[in-house]
Amino acid sequence: MRNHDARLHRLAEITLKKLRELDRSRTIVLLPIGMIEAHGEHLPLGTDSIAVEALTSAACAWLLDTDPDMHIVLMPTIPYGSDPIDLRRPDQFNKAGSVWIGTETLKAIITDLVGHMVRYGFTYIFPIGFHGGGLHNIALGDVCAELRTQYPNVVIDEPVGYVLAGGGMEVMPGLSTLLGRTLTVQERVALQGSVHASMFETSMMLSLRPQLVDPDYLYLRSIEWRDVYKLEQWPGYIGSGPRHASPEVGAAVLRWRGVRAGALIYRAVKGEDLTHLPRHPAWEPDQLKEIPEDEREPHKETTPELFLSPEDVARLQSEVDTKTGHDTDQLDGNTEDTADDA
Prior knowledge:
Blueprint: E1 8-10, H1 16-21, E2 27-32, H2 47-66, E3 71-74, H3 103-119, E4 124-128, H4 134-150, E5 155-156, H5 160-164, H6 175-179, H7 185-192, E6 194-196, H8 199-208, H9 225-230, E7 238-239, H10 247-269, H11 310-324
Parallel strand pairs: 1-3, 2-3, 2-4, 4-5
Antiparallel strand pairs: 6-7
């Protein structure tokens, strides 16, 4: 293992002298982007911020192992993002919930921060997300595209949007290597059915910060997308039951995402244009009615029923808005921030 500490520079801790001395041609800048968001009643509001820092650390380790000449400047994490889970059932979050910013505010913050690093001569800059909100991720992709136009000689991209869409699956070490075994059928089904604050994120937090996980997670069953709109009291998570969580699996999957993000960053540094790759989310909000019906029958005995038609989503959301009198368009700084998480 090479000495990472000498080549990983935290911006908040580095001296002005050292920042000036870094070889811009061999240095990349990483900007983690977190979120303060409700993650059920069993996980901390800062789950995505804790996760993105761990994911970024895994990406850094892979990059520094892969290229012995590379240096990394790690910027402090932006703690706020956009498009929280609250917007799916705002009536459930009147007294407490997420704290977020609008997508235009998020883009403006990233633009300002990247602009400073470009002014200081850095030419490889990568915001890194984790939060799955659809409009949040669209904003990250959009701001990177805008910055590439503004700074045509600078490589700027956000890798995790590609990871969430399946990018980097071929990268080694793979998940089985990191886990030390193959996933069981039950673990694979639970991971595939994880959406928000469910089996995967609970597993991840049990690995990263177990003291922050409410032990009641052991009693939490699976909640399907339909339940989000039907339950009178929805606890704020979606997907495979948190009670199926495994810290071992959570640690391996999170590290694997970080490895894949690192590999995508490395490809971009070496000159590859990543923008041809699919990004999360697969569908933008105004395309909701164009989403084809999924003809697969869910395996009701083994996995949550997470397949919803676009008509179901629109109807159920309309019923909730009508019943509660909430206008989700007014809850964010941007009127477009009302889509479902992927």
